[in-house]
Specification:
The protein is mostly helical and about 350 residues long. Helix content is about 60%, strand content about 5%.
Length: about 350
Amino acid sequence: MRPDTPAENVDHTAEAARLERTAGLYPEDAEALLLRAAAHLELSGDRPAATTLYDRLLSSAEELDEPALIRALKASNLWEYGHEAEARAIIDGVRAAAPRDPAPWVIVAEALESHDELEAAAETFTQGARLLLTDETEPPSATHPLLYGRHRVRRMQGLPHDDWDTLADTLHVSASASSVSLDELHDPKRVWSLGSENPAELEAEITRLRAELGAYREALSRPFPVAILHWPAPELAELLAAYPALSTEYPSHEEHLSTIESSLRELSSSGTPNLGIVTGTVPSYEAFAASEGSSPDDPTLLPQYATTLAARGRAVAWPPQRGVACWCGTGRGYGECHGTLGV
């Protein structure tokens, strides 16, 4: 949830200075630039200088885009170099302000967690989740760290799963190709070993994480065994105008989209894994037909074309992750579009 800062092969002090100079040249971008500069200063170990930048932003006469985020970052930074009382006061202020952005909640909760204030961390994660999540909508991706952090802290506390923990598990499975469950990732023994000063414990956990990363990459590299062909409305109109014989395959664009979703759901319910969708274009379809020595109006070419596109890495996974736009191209979330089919 912090500003992006590459951790390797970077002179963090020099980069922070460069960003400060740039902020002076582009005052309209000063907030984002100075936040990145402060992050570099934290990484360099100059935490007092980072606090100075946070104070500079908070005392600015300009209206800030994310004042709660800056206060949360300042509190986290202060606690790291011994200013616990001030950090706690700022954290209390952030919680009382009830920001509508998940990032400040995550940062202050993680600050509490990193100092073994597990009960307070769990309360903070929960307070943020109550404010930002509703039962009527799917959690946007920006709120996922709230649920993941809450799950982790409650796991450390040895508490039983509740509905939000179950939701965190579901989101993790949807967003990851790894077979490692959130419960295993948040196993207290694993969390403690990663914070251990024992080299043997750290090496064992790093080896385990590397093995899991290898399995994750392997899962990502597997081809989609079944990919359904999707024609956007303009492409389908062009296809049918050029090859009217295919109109029996595509009576209407609306029916085409419904058929895609229903076919994928049937395949999923039958246990077929790694389902995907490929988007066709008339020129590439015509080129494919020519390469096969056939005519584009041959309907048996359509599934072959879809398989070829998938083999070239053109497939996108189905169903879309939570909060991702629907595969059909309307721009609406999947849960508000074709994800409601048959519900």
